[in-house]
Design a protein that fits this description.
Layout lengths: L17 H68 L10 H22 L7 E3 L1 H14 L6 E6 L7 E3 L1 H18 L4 E10 L2 E8 L6 H17 L5 H11 L3
Parallel strand pairs: 2-4
Antiparallel strand pairs: 1-3, 4-5
Length: about 250
């Protein structure tokens, strides 16, 4: 056992006295440790696979965005020229605003892809934290319209404007909500609440999904950092949300 072998068992556990009872309790403890270690190793492998998966998605997203942006810029330029050169009485002028609107929509999608692949520095300014969280809740509710999952929001109306980056904080909240949705196997509920605690604003998210074993919670931080060391490009989504939450003004 000193070398980490958890397959060893004491033989005196078969005795029918206090020593035997102590041996049985010892064997049960070793068995529990072995099961917990196996679960930690499974979680480690799972996180490593997710890290590699997200790294690949990030690279593909960045490459795809750049490949589309260049020809899209050319299309936008052609549409602008057409708008200047078409006669005012031309019936084709009516579709130009719609085309320009769709081009802007595609550009916004590409910007989002690049934001996930290459996170930008936070832009702090006073903003309504209630509105930031409310937008994240709205987006999460779209994911459960056909599921028996209720998402409630209890805002703090007396909360002053808080110095934060609304876009990045919204992404953090949305990510937590989506994690909660995934953790609820059937019917369930997610509660989001805000309140003021002294000079701080608090956002609490609770769900009725399956929790994480205490031992896994204690070891999760170490598992994540190990995965990060093994693959620095990996887990960019998880690390991004984690980093956003830790940044200070």
């Amino acid at each position: 056992m000193r070398e980490g072998d958890l397959s060893a068992r004491v033989k005196f556990a078969k005795r029918n006295d206090d020593v035997g009872q102590l041996g049985r309790q010892f064997n049960e403890m070793i068995q529990q440790l072995a099961e917990n270690r196996a679960e930690i190793e499974r979680l480690h492998q799972f996180e490593m696979a997710r890290a590699e998966h997200f790294a690949t998605i990030g690279e593909l997203a960045a490459g795809l965005a750049h490949e589309i942006r260049n020809p899209l810029a050319g299309i936008a330029g052609v549409v602008e020229v057409m708008g200047r050169e078409l006669p005012q009485e031309s019936s084709s002028r009516g579709v130009l605003p719609e085309v320009q609107s769709e081009i802007q929509h595609i550009q916004a999608i590409l910007n989002d892809l690049l934001a996930y692949a290459r996170p930008r520095p936070p832009e702090f300014h006073p903003a309504d934290l209630n509105a930031t969280v409310e937008q994240a809740v709205f987006l999460a509710r779209q994911q459960v319209r056909t599921k028996p999952i209720e998402i409630t929001l209890a805002p703090e109306k007396r909360l002053p404007r808080i110095m934060h980056d609304p876009v990045q904080i919204q992404q953090v909240i949305l990510n937590l909500l989506l994690n909660g949705i995934q953790a609820i196997q059937k019917q369930g509920k997610i509660e989001v609440a805000l309140w003021q605690d002294g000079e701080c604003a608090v956002v609490r998210i609770r769900d009725t999904g399956k929790g994480i074993a205490r031992l896994l919670v204690e070891n999760f931080q170490a598992v994540f950092h190990h995965a990060k060391r093994r693959n620095r490009a990996g887990a960019f989504v998880r690390e991004r949300h984690r980093g956003v939450a830790q940044r200070k003004d």
